[in-house]
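Q: What would this chain look like folded?
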Amino acid sequence: MQKIGLIREWKQPADKRVALTPEQCSIFMKQFPNIELVVEESPDRTFSTKEYESAGVAVTADVSDCDILIGIKEVPIEKLIPNKTYFFFSHTIKAQAYNRNLLWAILQKNITLIDYEPITWKEGGRILGFGKWAGVVGAYNAFLTWGKKTKKYTLPAAYQTNDYQQSMKDLSALDLGKVRVVFTGNGRVAEGVREVLEGMKIRECSPQEFISQPPRGAYFTQLTSWDLYHRKDGGVWDVNHFYAHHDAYCCEFDNFLAHTDILINGMYWEEDMPALFSKEDTQSSNFSIQVIADITCDVEGSVPITIEATDIYKPTFGWSRSRQVREDAFGEDTIDVMAVTNLPTEMPRNSSTEFGSLFLKHIAPLIADGDRDGILHRATITKFGKLTPEFSYLQDFVDGQ
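A: My prediction, written as structure tokens:
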């Protein structure tokens, strides 16, 4: 009988999310009686040991006898068990330097690694992810930060409430005055941001209206790559051309700098894409942005003053407009940046429930009954101590070249 373990999140600060909730584990065991499912003890996860045991799931301190180990964040090298199959977000497929040693260790330990990020449908499109909840919490944190910045109101941290409905109730009660909000992107993150803004009953306007009409209350606009980037040669916008030739485009976000109070950044970004603005731009009297919720958190990326990532307990730092350096947040001279890397863990019950439902519906049957469409095969980064052909491009990265 195959045995699966839902593992503890060891990476610090501790992540509270899970791949399957207690109720979903119970459903899993009924649907797949030929698979044994256990949960590793954890003092941190949002669902308690008692909740899992009440759902009929065995909780154990030792998962070394499991065949498959399922987590969320990267597993620390010293916690990796050799010769196992792991599911988690490894953050290695873009050759992220900070995880090179992790990928090297996975290969040395003969681990089969299936990464959630490249788990896609045959025709494309990711199956699993927490993007929507990053957007939800990122938008919430934008207004939490705005309240601290303006001293007009206070909100509890999202992780303290740990309840989407209550958080939306708190947001909806705010008097925001004439605040002007821009959010970027058009993926799952943007979906979550929009859900919050619409739930708050903030008025939406077009990008053109946003910069041409004086505010009559709180309002927002969404900027996609089509709105932000234009061809230097004046040619017609084409999304395929844009993604193939970033260097042929310029960013026109400068049109919005004087009209924006809060920027919620959820756009996809690569290193050869122009940034939204420069560090030097923040010195200008034309730069009106006071709060930035950088959900994408590409350090010195699309938001160049995102000079570091933050965590949920210290989510915000300040960027001094005059001195052009990092400072403590909420000063008179600062633009305040929220750049938390694991936002969905602030609403771990909601985000885990949605992730787990997708895992249970689409991934669990592939584990139990076979990967007929190659969905797991395409997401397998390592096997038998080697990179799989789909990810062989990472060999130079592993070798440190």
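The longest helix spans residues 348-369.
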